[in-house]
Amino acid sequence: MTWTIDPTHTEISFAVRHMGLSTVRGRFERFEGVVATDEANRPQQVRVSIETGSITTGVADRDQHLRSGDFFDAESNPTITFESSSLDDLGGGRYRVHGTLDMHGVAKPVALEAEIAEPINDPFGQRRVAATVGGRINRKEWGLTWNTLLETGSLLVSEDVRLQIDVQATAA
Predict the structure, then answer these.
(1) Cys bridge to 158: 9, 17, 89, 130, which one at CB 3.0-4.6 A?
(2) Which pLDDT score, from 0 to 100, does residue 128 have?
């Protein structure tokens, strides 16, 4: 079965340590994707495309800086894509999803952890499924290297980025 990501019930977000003190969170507002599953609802293929210019952290100046050449360079790199290559069944509706994350002109392999709920029929007769997906990446591996070293020895922006995706999808 093919499932289409429902953008009104999905959040693609990230969290990064700031100054070694606190965590800054953000999300992407525009994206699309599909998930293919087998008859037993086991995922077989995942494809997601995210508009880099849709990044938001709730602070306009920071968002503009993230869209600039110091980070995503959204004008030259308008999308981030993920395409799965294989999935490991970890049991209990949990999977390790291996694939390629193409961001900032760099395509690299990543592995994300996913937990998938059983499909349901919503009150409007639409078949839906949901999943929670998470992982970590080092942003420098994708050429996102801007930073400042603070007098305390901490980086202004951590290189470690935590990804969190809460997704709902509808049957195509």
Answers:
(1) 17
(2) 96
